[in-house]
């Protein structure tokens, strides 16, 4: 017969193993600059979380254009992240697929641009400045 203490320890161990890993904090803005075959690219990725839903946008600056696009198929499982950036190029849509890992304020990503190129990049969390309190009224 198993003692109550051993039963409790076994139950806690099983519960710990079955509990999903807590997702990392993705919400906010992430900034990246990286060189590609077509030159330097600058991005700001913005992610929002509402319940289970994750939405995202990417503002970009490339050699000859600036723009913004809605990110698709955003998935976050533990530290692993993946999403798709749709790119319109000469009348055709090209999927830019991102996969990577988040660690603290750093997101290491591999970016597959259709069948054309694979690029590595690191996005860092943009620290938002805390709101400043209005100055205190002068003492009389």
The oligomerization state is single chain
Structural class: mainly beta
Distance between the termini: 79 Å
- What is the typical, i.e. mean, pLDDT? 85
How many distinct beta strands? 9
Please name the CATH topology. Answer: Lipocalin
CATH first level: Mainly Beta
Describe the biggest sheet?
9 strands, antiparallel
Neighbour order of strands in the largest sheet: 4-3-2-1-9-8-7-6-5
Order of helices and strands: HEEEEEEEEE
Number of contiguous helices: 1
Task: Provide a descriptive summary of the structure in words.
This protein has 140 residues and is mainly beta. It has a single domain (28-125), classed as Calycin beta-barrel core domain (Lipocalin). It has one helix and nine strands. Strands 4-3-2-1-9-8-7-6-5 form a nine-stranded antiparallel sheet, with no helix packed on it. The longest helix has 15 residues, at 4-18. The termini are far apart. Residues 17-22 have low confidence and may be disordered.
């Amino acid at each position: 017969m198993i003692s109550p203490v051993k039963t409790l320890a076994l139950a806690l161990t099983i519960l710990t193993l079955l509990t999903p890993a807590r997702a990392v904090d993705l919400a906010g803005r992430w900034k990246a600059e990286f060189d590609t075959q077509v030159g330097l690219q600058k991005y700001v990725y913005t992610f929002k979380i509402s319940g289970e839903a994750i939405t995202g946008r990417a503002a970009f600056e490339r050699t000859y254009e600036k723009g913004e696009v809605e990110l698709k198929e955003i998935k976050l499982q533990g530290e692993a992240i993946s999403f798709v950036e749709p790119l319109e190029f000469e009348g055709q849509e090209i999927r830019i697929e991102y996969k990577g890992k988040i660690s603290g304020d750093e997101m290491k990503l591999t970016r597959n641009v259709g069948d054309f190129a694979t690029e590595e990049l690191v996005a860092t969390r943009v620290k938002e400045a805390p709101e400043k309190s209005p100055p205190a009224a002068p003492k009389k």
